[in-house]
């Protein structure tokens, strides 16, 4: 089966994303100005846009039920040990403070759920910043003062927080995140590598990274007639509802979790966080509603993060750069609370022909905060390493890096031997090269100067798997010709509301403005998390199924509908769990042009361009925002985002937004996203792949490769900050003024 | 943050009197750093004396071409002031290189000088810090210190002063005017901030109860320029910065003011470099020699040696740009 | 000693649940918010941001970091953009405050969005929406600063700044957007700035003082 070629078309030829795709990455005209006959695929303005630009959209901490109290959490002041005493007197004497919850008085939780939620239950401190107390007060000011006045005594134990490649307690996990096997091996890597004409061996280092959604994690919780209600900032309120029910020993219908508006998550709100558990405990303890918004500085310890990785990639290839042997070893850390393994070696199982291969994860449990999902876990750091190594291989064999990737393209997923349902990596590379103005004849490093600036261009491939999870949805036709579709999806800024309404309207053969779309409330039909770039596929399939069935039922129906209308429910358990004979992944290519200032060591990106093959693009407006948004996060990963584990104290040093540098507007002079309109019948009824994460995947490597092209330096460590650049520029004699002997 | 009383002063004299009358008082101007630190539990006050509305909000030309800047002038207004843009571009640039548009709209001249270090340990009351809690130790020396000092630090403290504005003021030879219980006095801005020594809890030479009333700039000695290196393109503190004023006549340095930011506990007036430069040819080689004369005293920590190279590069670059401008103007 | 399952009843409710701070620690404060005069008795520690959100129910202004590091809380104070998280309400007594809720113009057929708000919709200059009110208020203030000729770091010395993408990027860098909508934000601000009418000036966001660069 040839999955490539025929279906790959430049979307510009189809006109769906032709507008404004060039120059500064802006959408040309008003979003949604044009109505297409099929709402699916039409550029459609964000449904919640008006609520968001007027300030009407209410987020989790923006509900103040009568009698509401404000809470402030207190994190452990040691990296490992036991709480020996909680001295509440000073905190409780603060006017306005009503309660101090700690392990000695907090409501008991039932075991079984995620152990990171097991807060205020015992005196163990597994890492610095672990929630050890909650101060509840009549005002935010009193809660803050009370938290500062709380004294906790600890019995401190020696801690171990530093990840090293030779840590004696490194082990090979059974599985890494996503259920991927910890180790995969094919052929005889050692022999093939030894026999290869060209060998590349690089060790790449990515620091801890923090999600830092703009809305800090927050919950407003109250108990009403035995029912727990929580407005909570999360990426999936069905899962949060289930966790709360389990923790508090309630039936699922005794818990309601509402996440109507969510101020970003990027994975950090993909699992239930202690915030909602603490708020619910405090509400039960005080008998009043409680609002808890985490201070920004608490996020790195409590809401997950991307664990640091030390990755070694070894490639063995023939003189043309065709890979015979590939080894990717990813060393990372988890906490003592639970195992989370960043699956950084997994993309090497997907990307390139590699008859002899070892991909392995090694992990050590340290006294550190528990890592978790951050946009494209596994792929983002893993492809930084692999795509940097591919660039090194291109240099080693003297091939253009695009050509090198084409030589290693594969029709079957190397790890499984399964054919790809679609794979248009080559088209993305070629289309990107055309749009970017890639020059294969200009690959000599460190020769393009503008004054004190060195200029370079780089490319990297991207990939992200297709996930599809079971979901429920209902569709209701009202007598007046309008429809209501209900699915407990979460719109964390992706445009889910908008796209699901398009999917519904398409199946109902109506226009989206006749479809009301209800999401963000656990009382709606159960649905999976907005994670793994799977939301649209998972929720959308259920919506599509319900709406298709409703349409059929309506066609069979004679006469007027009853006042309550006609409803159809659907679930996709069968579809989502059916095994596919295909390997299903999205692919892409990212191009970057950088300047390296030889005076300051500052690397700045001049242009960033991505081309993606991610199935059918259901809404070019929101899709473009997803792509460029993730690319922007990739730029941060490449240049400025980094977190240092403080060995003495056991916390990440850069915990605020002044020291943890997410990109600012001035960091992005030009960013563009394009796509190949890809038809793939082996996905879901919409023909879509996920688009929320792939944008981050190739970006850091493309920028790092561009820095190599600019300077000839291969830093192999992110972020590419001036301290690192200056050191290497000096060693390479690239400073503008000679260093005295 | 504990509750505090609040009074609004209507004159500088009243502000100073209120301060003397109220134990645990602090002056509040724009508050962009003070409120930040009070929330963190790093700063505290029993009374805040609001001096933001004092009639210290004017920029006035003085005798002989000097410029007197009121303590309450907002950073954005100062950066936009025609006299500053035209005659002291280094000051305008330094202000605009700092913080963000909305912070500059609120932060004041005096408050900018009074900023405290962004050392991560100083900002975390859960950890030792000699500046915050004298005698508790300095974890930064062995800890996370890439952004910290290479010049003038001590065994007790390796903090850097975060201001951009103050670096320009140091290069310009500005004077800080103070009003205290004992009357008025003035200090060169380069002497206003201290080195940490054994008393890192004291950032400045300000005496208890003294209020900054104005900053005075001498007449400009020549063209000037500010350049800052940082981790992202905007809205980040300096890894290092350079402010320079250069008067070149016939290819020779007639006068110079040079200051470094991000290297020390105070804006670092580069006296040794200036001495080398006076009378020297205005060439990159001479500039490098001058920078080296200053930076030879640097004592980098484990992870911040790059700052020495960075400061050297910046100094040569900025002085060369000014010299080229002078050569262009002369031609 | 860990967890006997008992709740410490004695600490459940404190003696002073409604206790306000002592008299010397609070003041009556009058703020003119979106054209409406509001007088409240506030703890001196209360920021403008918390006043808007927790006392006035104006949740349009967002708390992203509470330390002046993200710009989500940007409002217009007497027409100038400022981080409301770092302003004490008591120190702003008498100030005119414009929040995102006060930008649209009321009309008979519903409110008309401010040109900046409309441009954000037109360019899909938002995703999660949490930074959006701060971005919009910042843009309104920024356009006023630009119109008044205030320089930025990227303005050529001696020249008057224009409504270029480079100027907008630098001037909007005090507003973080983790969703990465920057490119669209720049396009939106540029569009709004070019639109006929005065995108920078609103009834409560009087930018007149900006004509006079010397004093606020």
From TrEMBL, chain A:
<dbReference type="Pfam" id="PF02738">
    <property type="entry name" value="MoCoBD_1"/>
</dbReference>
<dbReference type="InterPro" id="IPR016208">
    <property type="entry name" value="Ald_Oxase/xanthine_DH-like"/>
</dbReference>
<dbReference type="InterPro" id="IPR037165">
    <property type="entry name" value="AldOxase/xan_DH_Mopterin-bd_sf"/>
</dbReference>
<dbReference type="InterPro" id="IPR000674">
    <property type="entry name" value="Ald_Oxase/Xan_DH_a/b"/>
</dbReference>
<dbReference type="InterPro" id="IPR046867">
    <property type="entry name" value="AldOxase/xan_DH_MoCoBD2"/>
</dbReference>
<dbReference type="Pfam" id="PF01315">
    <property type="entry name" value="Ald_Xan_dh_C"/>
</dbReference>
<feature type="region of interest" description="Disordered">
    <location>
        <begin position="1"/>
        <end position="58"/>
    </location>
</feature>
<dbReference type="InterPro" id="IPR008274">
    <property type="entry name" value="AldOxase/xan_DH_MoCoBD1"/>
</dbReference>
<dbReference type="Pfam" id="PF20256">
    <property type="entry name" value="MoCoBD_2"/>
</dbReference>
<protein>
    <submittedName>
        <fullName>Xanthine dehydrogenase family protein molybdopterin-binding subunit</fullName>
    </submittedName>
</protein>
<keyword id="KW-0500">Molybdenum</keyword>
<keyword id="KW-0560">Oxidoreductase</keyword>
<dbReference type="InterPro" id="IPR036856">
    <property type="entry name" value="Ald_Oxase/Xan_DH_a/b_sf"/>
</dbReference>
<feature type="domain" description="Aldehyde oxidase/xanthine dehydrogenase a/b hammerhead">
    <location>
        <begin position="54"/>
        <end position="158"/>
    </location>
</feature>
TrEMBL record, chain B:
<dbReference type="InterPro" id="IPR005107">
    <property type="entry name" value="CO_DH_flav_C"/>
</dbReference>
<protein>
    <submittedName>
        <fullName>Xanthine dehydrogenase family protein subunit M</fullName>
    </submittedName>
</protein>
<dbReference type="InterPro" id="IPR036318">
    <property type="entry name" value="FAD-bd_PCMH-like_sf"/>
</dbReference>
<dbReference type="InterPro" id="IPR002346">
    <property type="entry name" value="Mopterin_DH_FAD-bd"/>
</dbReference>
<dbReference type="InterPro" id="IPR016169">
    <property type="entry name" value="FAD-bd_PCMH_sub2"/>
</dbReference>
<dbReference type="InterPro" id="IPR016167">
    <property type="entry name" value="FAD-bd_PCMH_sub1"/>
</dbReference>
<dbReference type="InterPro" id="IPR051312">
    <property type="entry name" value="Diverse_Substr_Oxidored"/>
</dbReference>
<feature type="domain" description="FAD-binding PCMH-type">
    <location>
        <begin position="1"/>
        <end position="222"/>
    </location>
</feature>
<dbReference type="InterPro" id="IPR016166">
    <property type="entry name" value="FAD-bd_PCMH"/>
</dbReference>
<dbReference type="Pfam" id="PF03450">
    <property type="entry name" value="CO_deh_flav_C"/>
</dbReference>
<dbReference type="InterPro" id="IPR036683">
    <property type="entry name" value="CO_DH_flav_C_dom_sf"/>
</dbReference>
<dbReference type="Pfam" id="PF00941">
    <property type="entry name" value="FAD_binding_5"/>
</dbReference>
<keyword id="KW-0560">Oxidoreductase</keyword>
Automatic annotation (TrEMBL), chain C:
<dbReference type="InterPro" id="IPR036884">
    <property type="entry name" value="2Fe-2S-bd_dom_sf"/>
</dbReference>
<feature type="domain" description="2Fe-2S ferredoxin-type">
    <location>
        <begin position="27"/>
        <end position="103"/>
    </location>
</feature>
<keyword id="KW-0408">Iron</keyword>
<feature type="region of interest" description="Disordered">
    <location>
        <begin position="1"/>
        <end position="26"/>
    </location>
</feature>
<protein>
    <submittedName>
        <fullName>2Fe-2S iron-sulfur cluster binding domain-containing protein</fullName>
    </submittedName>
</protein>
<dbReference type="InterPro" id="IPR012675">
    <property type="entry name" value="Beta-grasp_dom_sf"/>
</dbReference>
<dbReference type="Pfam" id="PF00111">
    <property type="entry name" value="Fer2"/>
</dbReference>
<feature type="compositionally biased region" description="Basic and acidic residues">
    <location>
        <begin position="201"/>
        <end position="216"/>
    </location>
</feature>
<dbReference type="InterPro" id="IPR052914">
    <property type="entry name" value="Aldehyde_Oxdr_Iron-Sulfur"/>
</dbReference>
<dbReference type="InterPro" id="IPR002888">
    <property type="entry name" value="2Fe-2S-bd"/>
</dbReference>
<keyword id="KW-0560">Oxidoreductase</keyword>
<dbReference type="Pfam" id="PF01799">
    <property type="entry name" value="Fer2_2"/>
</dbReference>
<dbReference type="InterPro" id="IPR001041">
    <property type="entry name" value="2Fe-2S_ferredoxin-type"/>
</dbReference>
<feature type="region of interest" description="Disordered">
    <location>
        <begin position="194"/>
        <end position="216"/>
    </location>
</feature>
<dbReference type="InterPro" id="IPR036010">
    <property type="entry name" value="2Fe-2S_ferredoxin-like_sf"/>
</dbReference>
